[in-house]
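Review this chain:
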Amino acid sequence: DMVEIGLPFSDPLADGTTIQSSSTRALQNGMTSEKLFEQLSDVRKKIKIPLLIMGYFNPILQYGVEEFCERCEHIGIDGLIIPDLPLYEYERGYRSIFEAHGLYNIFLISPQTTEERIRAIDQASEGFIYMVSSSSTTGSQDGFGAEQQKYFKRVADMHLENPRIVGFGIKDANSFQAATTHAQGGIIGSAFIKSLEQNGVEGIPDFIKRIRYI
């Protein structure tokens, strides 16, 4: 298990309406990178599982990449998921900073990613590879069809060094099982936010149980 913590951004291109709306509300309520770090300052007193921050590169760049990574290390963040940070730019300008602060950089692949690029990402990765289930935005699809299962199996048959975790489109036990037939895990964002809106924090245990068990 792990927890992905969202860093709100005004233009989250990879996210659907649910996460876009939650980001907008957070920004309207005054959320900033600094405030997020303040809220997470004592998180490791209670949380022992891996913690990742997912966000876009612009707020990190504005904060200062070195300073951002330093704060992550101090808090106990394990890695970052930055959809708009290309492999080339990471390798050329930022890998040494991430590694100096003990942070994994989690890369994304999609059905359109070539085998050559997938293998390059695998070589550059530690932690896991984030398999985007389709080219759509988060929360915008309903289940996984034959083409997506074919994609999951194609990547599994490449026998990559890093585990693969599927994201985009997982909302219940059936979609979780379908996503993990050829991968080691699933990432749930939009469905979790909808559950929070409907049931509050108290509903989290039941939500997790519904995902794990049919």
The mean pLDDT is 90.
